[in-house]
Amino acid sequence: MFIKGRVIKAINFNWHPECFRCHSCNVLLDSGFIKNALRPFCKECNMREKSKYQNQIMCHECSTPVENDMIRFKGEPYHSYHFNCKICEQELNSNAREIRGELYCLKCHDKLDIPICSGCHTPIDQERIVYALGKTWHVEHFACAKCEIPFNGSKHFEKRGLAYCEAHYNQLFGNLCFVCNSTITGDVFSFVNKSWCVEHFSCYLCDELMNQKTKFYDFDSKPVCKHCFEKLPSKIRSTILKANDTKEHSKSIFSWIKDK
């Protein structure tokens, strides 16, 4: 019906003054109103309306409860039917994906070939991508498997398909010195299934430090320098030589691992 005379313009509509009433109690709203979900309410009815949905998620677009097919866009909840796919323009559902401020249906999103983070299993739409362990990661999700602190570009160590910071890699898989029982972070001397720090690899009898060029012998699974070996009784030397099968210790039993 055409309106003659006074017109009330509200909520994108024109109203006869006598028709502009509360959506709930039908009282005239000549003294003011409150808009709720594109409907006019008096103050009292609006409070009752809001209390009905106090524990429900409200759509950021239409201010009504979102019960099914909710999507979050730029951090806010919406009914999915308020949006269409950026590419195919089909109405979206709760499977919609947001990439760089645009929404896509699942089918179109998969065609974009966007890398998925192996940590949170969501698309990586940032410029910085970490490629490690044969996978892709958000920078903040590529972290030590033990302490879960992100590497943020720092050195990491790989073992059995997992990445570790240096401290926890050494703690879990590093060599422990036979003398001080600490993780060896530098060069490693290995002999008969034992490891030594450079500063602790010494002769069992005289405690003189030895290096990768020192000649030594296996004396009851302990390293003995040539000088101390020659002081041993001849019978013991013969037994050691037979066991060693050489005057110098076999390289297959002794190894020196230089720290990189």
Description:
The protein is α+β, with helices and mostly antiparallel strands. Helices cover 15% and strands 22% of the residues. The chain has five helices and 17 strands. A three-stranded antiparallel β-sheet has the order 14-13-17, with no helix packed on it. Strands 1-2 form a two-stranded antiparallel sheet. It is rod-shaped, with a radius of gyration of 38 Å. The model is unreliable at 247-253 (pLDDT under 50).
Query: Strands of the largest sheet, in order across it?
Result: 14-13-17
Number of separate strands: 17
Strand percentage: 15-25%
Mean pLDDT: 82
Distance between the termini: 87 Å
Q: From the alpha-carbon coordinates, what is the Rg to the nearest angstrom? A: 38 Å
Q: Approximately how much helix is present in the residues?
A: 10-25%
Instruction: Report the sheet with the most strands, covering strand number, pairing sense and barrel closure.
Output: 3 strands, antiparallel
Alpha-beta content class: alpha+beta
Unreliable runs: 247-253
In one word, what is the shape? Answer: rod-shaped
The topology string of helices and strands comes to: EEEEHEEEEHEEEEHEEEEHHE
H/I helix tally: 5
Short summary:
With 260 residues, this protein is an alpha+beta fold.
Write the topology of this structure:
Elements: E1 8-10, E2 13-15, E3 34-36, E4 39-41, H1 43-52, E5 70-73, E6 76-79, E7 97-99, E8 102-104, H2 106-111, E9 130-132, E10 135-137, E11 157-159, E12 162-164, H3 166-173, E13 188-191, E14 194-197, E15 216-218, E16 223-225, H4 226-229, H5 234-244, E17 254-257
Antiparallel strand pairs: 1-2, 3-4, 5-6, 7-8, 9-10, 11-12, 13-14, 13-17, 15-16
